[in-house]
């Protein structure tokens, strides 16, 4: 689905990381962990074509992004749902409209009952008409997850999806992501939260990648 081959990235200063090789096969579940500032968000941005690698190859659904134009990459990105770290809602639009926004942008009409089902799945039917600033942290994260999956993507990339929520809400979000994986979606979660990773490992076969010292390392058993 998504493959990085010997990838390096620099924002202009020194290299943030280099020699990063990873593969997210269909239906796989990965965690990406590592210290703050190691470059997890940056790596996710490379995985969905938001940034271009300074060296190496990024393949999205088998296609080398270096050979693709912006429109091609935009098309491929529709197959990837992203849960951003800061959620990024349009605060003047109700929650339901924020969740449906990717459909609107793509010029597609979603069936109202599908949106209703999605709101029910994330437990936000009651909050559908509220504005994003009125939501709690956990509600915002669930709304962000709903928005990420509304286009039925093949891959879900979640950047700290349980940041700023309590343990019960972390578990609830994790359960939703595991459900998506059981439906066949490829899932990558960037997180600092090692207890979340431990909790997931009893539920799903997850591979843990650690970004540290400018390299990707497979995390050992000492999580
Ligand atoms: N647009 C940018 N321009 C310049 N430097 C940037 C930019 N975005 C991020 N950085 C820097 O790149 C480094 C990695 O940032 P990134 O957000 O990818 O790390 P992270 O591992 O996700 O961190 P955290 O766990 O704290 O969210 C940081 O030092 C950050 O300041």
Would you spell out the secondary-structure blueprint of this structure?
Layout: E1 2-9, E2 17-24, E3 29-33, H1 40-47, E4 55-60, E5 63-64, H2 70-77, E6 80-83, H3 95-105, H4 112-121, H5 137-149, E7 155-159, H6 167-182, E8 186-190, H7 194-201, E9 206-212, E10 215-218
Parallel strand pairs: 3-8, 3-9, 6-7, 7-8
Antiparallel strand pairs: 1-2, 1-4, 4-5, 9-10
Helix pairs in contact: 3-5
How would you characterize the overall build of this protein?
It comes from Salibaculum griseiflavum. One of its GO terms (cellular component) is plasma membrane. This protein has 223 residues and is of the alpha/beta class. It has a single domain (2-218), classed as Rossmann fold (3-Layer(aba) Sandwich). It is built from 7 helices and 10 strands. A 6-stranded mixed beta sheet has the order 6-7-8-3-9-10, with helices on both faces. The radius of gyration is 17 Å and the shape is globular. The mean pLDDT is 90. Bound molecules: adenosine-5'-triphosphate. Residues 11, 16, 34, 36-42 line the site of adenosine-5'-triphosphate (ATP).
């Amino acid at each position: 689905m998504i493959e990085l081959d010997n990838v390096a990235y620099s924002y202009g200063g020194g290299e943030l990381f280099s020699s990063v090789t990873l593969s997210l096969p269909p239906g796989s579940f990965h965690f990406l962990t590592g210290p703050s500032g190691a470059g997890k968000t940056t790596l996710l941005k490379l995985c969905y074509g938001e940034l271009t690698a300074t060296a190496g190859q990024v393949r999205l659904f088998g296609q080398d992004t270096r050979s693709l134009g912006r429109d091609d990459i935009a098309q491929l990105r529709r197959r990837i749902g992203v849960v951003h770290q800061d959620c990024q809602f349009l605060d003047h639009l109700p929650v339901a409209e924020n969740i449906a926004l990717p459909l609107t942008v793509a010029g597609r009409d979603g069936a109202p009952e599908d949106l209703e089902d999605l709101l029910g799945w994330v437990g936000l039917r009651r909050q559908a008409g509220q504005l994003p600033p009125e939501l709690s942290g956990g509600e915002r994260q669930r709304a962000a997850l709903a928005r990420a999956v509304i286009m039925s993507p093949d891959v879900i990339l979640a950047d700290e999806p349980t940041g700023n929520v309590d343990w019960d809400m972390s578990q609830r979000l994790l359960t939703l992501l595991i459900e998506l994986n059981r439906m066949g979606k490829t899932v990558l979660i960037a997180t600092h939260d090692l207890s979340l990773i431990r909790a997931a490992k009893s539920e799903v076969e997850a591979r843990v990648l650690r970004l540290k010292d400018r390299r990707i390392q497979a995390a050992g058993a000492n999580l």
